[in-house]
Design a protein that fits this description.
The chain has 76 residues and is mainly beta. 7% of the residues lie in helices and 46% in strands. It has one helix at 3-7, and strands at 10-13, 19-28, 34-41, 54-58, 62-65, 69-72. It has a 6-stranded mixed beta sheet with strand order 4-3-2-1-6-5. A hairpin with a 5-residue loop joins strand 2 (19-28) and strand 3 (34-41). The radius of gyration is 12 Å and the shape is globular.
């Protein structure tokens, strides 16, 4: 699977069923192993008290990569 294919999928939090955002990058170890995703938060998750629009999702938090969505479990 290519990064461009991942970027076309919605990232959905399984805890509340809401869209977290869209993938803008990935995290990779020096060994080449992918360790997580960098997601640009949707407007719902952007707080007026926070200027950070990115969220790092660790590989362990990814539950399922489906045809149209990526399901994650994150506590916000």
């Amino acid at each position: 699977m290519r990064l461009s294919e991942l970027q076309n999928k919605d990232v959905i939090n399984m805890i509340d069923g809401k869209k977290v955002g869209n993938i803008i990058d990935i995290e990779i170890e020096s060994s080449g192993k992918m360790t997580g995703l960098i997601v640009e938060k949707s407007k719902f998750f952007v707080s007026m008290f926070s200027n950070k629009n990115e969220l790092a999702i660790k590989w362990e938090q990814i539950e399922k990569i489906g045809e149209d969505v990526i399901l994650v479990t994150i506590n916000l």
